[in-house]
Amino acid sequence: MSSPFSNTVRVARKVVAIAIVVFVLLSVLTVLLFRWVPIPVSSVMVERQIEAAVAGRSTGYRYQWVSYEDISPQLKLAVIASEDQRFPYHHGFDEHQMALAWRNWRAGEALRGASTISQQTAKNVWLWTHSDLARKGVEAWFTLLIENLWSKQRILEVYLNLAEWGDGVYGAQAAARYYFHTDANALSAQQAALLASVLPAPRHWSASRPNARVANHSRWVLRQMRQLGGTRYLDTLH
Q1: What is the pTM of this model?
Q2: 67 closest CA partner among 37, 29, 108, 96
Q3: Which has the closest alpha carbon to 123: 62, 44, 188, 54?
Q4: 3-class DSSP state of 169
Q5: Domain tally, the chain
Q6: Are residues 78 and 109 in the same domain?
Q7: Less packed terminus of the chain by CB within 10 Å, N or C?
Q8: Bridge partner residues of 169 (DSSP)
Q9: From start to end of the chain, where are the E strands?
Q10: How many Cα atoms sit within 13 Å of 60 on the Cβ side?
Q11: What is the tens place of the pLDDT at every residue in 201-231?
Q12: Contact 71/191 with Cβ under 8 angstroms?
């Protein structure tokens, strides 16, 4: 005869197993759906809306989805040059940058992030902004899914449409209009480099009124764009 404790453990195991199966199925289904369907809202947008509502601030935001073809090649290249130059070649995780960050940390330097565009896309669509072990684990799962079920062009398209580019400014089209009064497909190399340079702190830095740090980084991004071979580098995406 089984004890109440063993029954409780058995039920708990069953519940956990069902929860895992449901999570896996739902995550795969949403990734497959978003392979073709424009994403109406991201988890980051929802998180920011909740934060604003709790603080009693306005909850409006700027966001308009545009297709991959309607985003300037200069912006695509600038973001890759600034954020993840090995993006066309890795499978979601840049082992080289991860090893370099670990080695530098062991040498006494501050631990820096080594997130790829794929990881950032997974976070923006499904997860929260605060970094912790649980988020990193789920982020890795979604990164593997999108790397295997989406093309590199689709990952970059989603990233550029959902990236936070200011307080309440999401995506390339909203950013282009907000900062430069133009459309995403008309961004110049200089404008694209400035936009790429504010991504580390988009709610504190401005692409149209760059501080010294943003201005210096944008010049570095422009040099990297040239060294990568210009927009022809985008031909490596598949």
Answers
A1: 0.89
A2: 37
A3: 44
A4: strand
A5: 2
A6: yes
A7: N
A8: 62, 166
A9: 62-63, 164-166, 169-170
A10: 3
A11: 999 999 999 999 999 999 999 999 999 999 9
A12: no
